[in-house]
Amino acid sequence: MKKVLILDTGKEWGGGTNSLIELLKRIDKKRYGFSALFYSNYRMGSGPDVKSELEKLGAGFSVLERGENPAWLKPLKEAGRALLFPSAALKKRYVFRLDYIGRIVPDSKRIESFLREGGFDLLYMNNQPSSNLEGILAAKAAKVPAVQHSRIEVRLNKVEAEAVNSNAARVICVSRGVMDGLVESGVRADKCVVVYNGIDGTVKPKRSPEEVRRDLGIKEGTTVIGTVGSLIKRKRVDLLLRAFPAVKGIEGTVCLVVGDGAEMDSLKKTTRDLGLADRVIFTGFSADALSFINAMDLFVSASEKEGLPRVVLEAMLMGKSVVAFDIIGTREIVVNEKTGLLVREECAQALGAAIDGLLGKRKALEAFGKEGRKRVLEEFGIDRYVSGVERVFKEVLG
């Protein structure tokens, strides 16, 4: 049995966490034994924490003891930002160099010790090269092969790209767009392999659409659009809210926002400012997002950056048409005018026009949903995802 250490530097539950859990449920446990080293034991909203969920699957769990940042780090960052404010590029390089010395290198030494003491055969990193740079450095120092699972579109600086090329055995990219971005940043193409995220086609919502709508106080016959995800700036839920007034039948339409995050208060204020308080429902985080998606007539993603959004796969699995911006990852799932609409102009007006247009074509709305479900079942099955990751493990470990 090969010992694999999972490194995750994230702070919140997301699609990458769910994909990791789905992998651990199905991967060959006779061939691989897993332990996890996380920066934070984050929770699924108000539900279970990641430690308990991974331990249920037989993986050990530890939180990396990182220590305090050096006292000089913050004041030097602030001074550099003030002095270099005319040049964003210089400011970015300066801050990175300070982080590299004051945070990344010390963290890499802690991870190196963990790898050596645990006798691990492989380091599997669950984020992307910029946020896993310390892991890449640690694996090199410990002489342990490293596999990076890059789950979001990212552009690397020269130091990060060189570290990947020198020290990572393979980079698993969740979409072709993610791979292209890494290669454009200087990562060698032969280091990269595309393994699409997958979803279990047998999973079912826990509640019926009628039950969800009733619990939310939505009247029968109301059209429901919505989105699901962390309420952070990258998801641009504010654009969905600003697009909502373009819906012609807005009096008979409700918008669901399922999720929680730092932008919650700001989004609620935007809703009030737009006079939509009675038309927008914020549900908070839900471990049963699938039931909310299944209660929608149309799913909307306004995100500006993704890798291969798992929530869009979930929406299509539920037979929902999708309206989304034409961005990396999403464009590899949604087929424009076949399973939904891809909006090229990234603004509220264009998004609103697409939503309104599709809601006005009920036959197309239903047909796109059926085609979307078929596409997910045929092209994005969970077994294909798991076998793709296992192939990389076998190749790297010989």
Describe this structure in words.
The chain is of the alpha/beta class and 398 residues long. It has 15 helices and 13 strands. The protein has helices spanning 15-26, 50-56, 73-83, 88-118, 133-142, 158-167, 176-184, 209-215, 237-243, 264-273, 289-294, 310-317, 348-359, 362-379, 382-397, and strands at residues 2-8, 32-38, 60-63, 122-125, 146-150, 170-173, 192-194, 223-228, 253-258, 280-284, 298-301, 321-325, 340-343. The strands form two sheets. Strands 3-2-1-4-5-6-7 form a seven-stranded parallel beta sheet, sandwiched between helices. Strands 10-9-8-11-12-13 form a six-stranded parallel beta sheet, with helices on both faces. Helix 2 links the parallel strand 2 (32-38) and strand 3. Helix 3 packs antiparallel against helix 4. The model has no long low-confidence stretch (mean pLDDT 95).
Question: What is the CATH architecture term of the largest domain?
Answer: 3-Layer(aba) Sandwich
- Tell me the helix content: 40-55%
Structural class: alpha/beta
Shape: globular
- Series of secondary-structure elements, N-terminal to C-terminal: EHEHEHHEHEHEHEHEHEHEHEHEEHHH
Which percent range describes the beta-strand content? 15-25%
Keywords:
single chain, 398 residues, alpha/beta, Rossmann fold, seven-stranded parallel beta sheet, 15 helices, 44% helix, 16% strand, globular
